[in-house]
Amino acid sequence: MRSNLDVMSSAALRSTTQRTTTPRAGGLRRSLGERLHKVASAAVTPLEPSDVLDLFNPLRRGAELRARIVAVHAETDDAATIELKPGKDWAGHIPGQYIRIGIDVDGRRQWRAYSLTHGPRPDRHISITVKAVPGGVVSQFLVHQAKPGTLVHLEQAAGEFVLDHTHHKLLFVTAGSGITPVIGMLRNLFPVTDSGVLGLDKLDQRSPSLSRGLDIVVVHLAPSEPQTIFRRNLTELHDSGAVTVIPRYDDVHGVFDVATLAELVPDLAERTTYACGPHGLLDALEAHHAERGLELYTEQFRVGAVEAGEGGTLSIAGQTLELDGATTILDAAEEAGVLMPSGCRMGICMGCILPLREGAVRDLRTGDVTVAVPGETPVAGLPVQTCISAAAGACTIEHKERVR
After folding, report:
1. Distance CA 195, CA 188 (A)
2. In a designed cystine with 324, which of 238, 311, 399, 401 is the match (CB 3.0 to 4.6 A)?
3. Strand, helix or coil at 129?
4. Are 177 and 170 in contact (CB under 8 A)?
């Protein structure tokens, strides 16, 4: 029969053995891993092993963030919802936020920003809804040519147009594709299933829900009923009693007048307003609400008034370009074959910023001029948004990448 001392000694020996052998084993594993990596690197030179892995598993953890198109659903004749499976490093989003995606069209990578149109899903898929803009390179491609299986580059979700859950009486005013961030919020609050909208009377009463206690009105503007994106969802949400939808169609009601908003929503003063749409609508709402002291949150999808400068010479990526006062630096550089960073292309997402090393550029929205003077301004240059800036005399933008 073994004594307690024998048992304790055996345990101590096992513990000591584990402590002395584990580091050695770990070192051997690391050494073996390093050797295998060297062998793999030699086998795929001049590529990196990660380049080869990208071919087989581009959505893996640690890879450059991408997403694969899994489905394309037509919404109207000129709009479609693109369902995406993001890579393993996708960090998630808050309904109302947007993403920037990069896609290669005709050999050139284009970046655009689109609102996410669902809340977080069990399958981790995300979706954007794109309206084909006349002459739009990316929007036309996504709506009419994108196919399941296509890989796109992806950035993490961003944006501050999200619900403040301390507000309970809400008004959404949306126009056209401005409904996209709002439908993401509504779908998250009131999920739509095959059996219908899970409204207040169908939610699991055993668990708290963000949708309880909310009173939501949606005033949605569209050219006509057939051209209304998410018409079916909006109708389902209204018919279920989850929200009150007030549609206003230009072909029936005429162009919307913000002054009539109080007639459509009698308790307007009691509601917090969230609005998304073209700048004309948002400008009118901002003036209307400011005059009455009402709370307003906005998201804009189109650039406002353009003020052209005098133009000038742009030096970028080893080229010298002559620009007029109305052409943005981004458009001119891309036309010349320069691979430029970009995103929303309307001065919101900051995805197009490059340093102005010397000279002057003009903000086409405000007319403000930014001047960089060597020896006076920072050595790294002044950050400028190339998508809304034009040359205002000679200017030099630091950027070296080229397409061809």
Report:
1. 16
2. 311
3. strand
4. no
The CATH code for residues 66-154 is: 2.40.30.10
Q: How far is CA 296 from CA 4, 96, 162, 273, 276, in A?
A: 75, 15, 12, 5, 11
Left if phi > 0, otherwise alpha if psi is -120 to 50, otherwise beta: which for 293?
A: left
- What span, in angstroms and rounded, lies between the C-alpha atoms of 215 and 262? 16
**β-strand partners of 244:** 217
Supply the DSSP string of 177-245, one letter for each residue. Answer: GGHHHHHHHHHHHS-EETTEE--TTTS-TTS--TTTT-EEEEEEEESSSTT-TTHHHHHHHHHTTSSEE
Amino acid at 106: D
Q: How far apart are CA 297 and CA 372, in angstroms?
A: 34
Cα Rg of the chain (Å, integer): 27
Q: How does pLDDT run across 37-49, given as a tens digit for each residue?
A: 554 445 445 445 4
252 DSSP assignment: H
pTM: 0.69
Return the half-sphere exposure (C-beta side, CA atoms, 13 A cut-off) of residue 23: 3
What is the pLDDT averaged over residues 183-198?
75
- Residue 46, preceding peptide bond in cis (omega within 30° of 0): yes
Distance CA 64, CA 86 (A): 11
SS3 256: coil
Structural domain 169-300, CATH architecture: 3-Layer(aba) Sandwich (3.40)
**pLDDT exceeds cutoff 90 at 86:** yes
Cβ pair 201, 157 in contact under 8 A: no
Please tell me the distance from the alpha carbon of residue 191 to that of residue 387, in angstroms, as a whole number.
37
pLDDT over 60 (residue 194): no
Q: At 5, is the pLDDT very low, low, confident or very high (cuts 50, 70, 90)?
A: very low
